[in-house]
Amino acid sequence: MRLKPVFRDLTTGSRLLMLILVILLCGILSLSVSYLLSVLIWGKSVLHEAGDPEMINLGFMRLTQMLNQVGFFLIPPFLFALLSERYPFSFLGFNKPRIIHFFAAILLLMAAGPLTGYLAGWNERLILPTELSGLADWMRTSEDTASKLTNRLLNAPGTTSLIVNIIMIGLLPSLGEELLFRSALIGIFRKIFRGIHLPVIISALLFSALHLQFFGFLPRFMLGLLFGYLFVWSGSVWIPVIAHFINNSSVVIASYLYNNGISAIPADELGTVSSGAGVALSTAAVVLIMFWVYYTRKSSPELSPVQQESSGTIS
User: Fold this and answer.
1) What is the mean pLDDT of the chain?
2) pLDDT in tens, 243-294
3) How far apart are the first and last CA of the chain?
4) With the C-alpha atoms ordered 224, 227, 230, 232, is the resulting torsion angle positive or negative?
5) pTM higher than 0.70, yes or no?
6) Residue 59 in contact with residue 42, Cβ under 8 Å?
7) pLDDT, mean of residues 10-16
8) 219 three-state secondary structure
9) Rounded CA gap, 159 and 245, in Å?
10) DSSP 256-289
11) Which of 167, 197, 295, 307 could serve as 303's disulfide partner, Cβ 3.0–4.6 Å?
């Protein structure tokens, strides 16, 4: 689909600023709508309970979480692409994926469990210098609050809660975050830097940092790298979306099975191993699978129009 975008002639830096502006405007709108609906449904008292993870209304949490995912992550990339790109859907990576890359994404998430668990444990044990003790205390408090909120959502009983959690934690983040951090940001950064590595690394850093969970920074950064390379090498955003969805939904389903006595494995132990050999095998498998994606990547001797725009060869 080819359009005549209003802001096609903006510089790359201006496009980045425009994306940030769109995110802020859509985010503020989504926050306003979620608070307004919450007050209409549950009354003003629900806002006073929002600061207490033990007392916060689950319905309010779910509504706010889902609307914020739509407002901060899902809508902005579409608006940005429609306003600035001649081929908005190609720019966002809505291209037909190869089946082999779907299988690679599934295998990658299965293989990465021990490595992710090792990085999470190592990250958890990091200690900041004494001079930064105040910052460390703030980060720990924020992490504990986020963990309590997540656990309340995951521990909610019933099949309905399972379905809502899959949509809220699995589906919406996998679509919105991949479109923003992979499609939009990598697309912009590829117009600034030569090659793909710096765009992938920067987008992964932002992906992990903006979750505001320091003690999960390293495993999330690694996942951001994997999702980024899946995107640029497969040529389709659907591949990292499915990988992201599997990663998040597996935690939701594992929590549901554990809380209902169906499984004896807690969600935070899913796929992890305690031996160094297991971590080494996981690392080797991840590297091999990514090489597989690389050598089966989409390539053509001639760039398509959207690829030419992304690489800066079209003015």
Assistant:
1) 85
2) 999 999 999 999 999 888 888 787 777 767 777 888 999 999 999 999 999 9
3) 19
4) negative
5) yes
6) yes
7) 86
8) helix
9) 19
10) HHHHTTS-SS-GGGTT--SSHHHHHHHHHHHHHH
11) 307
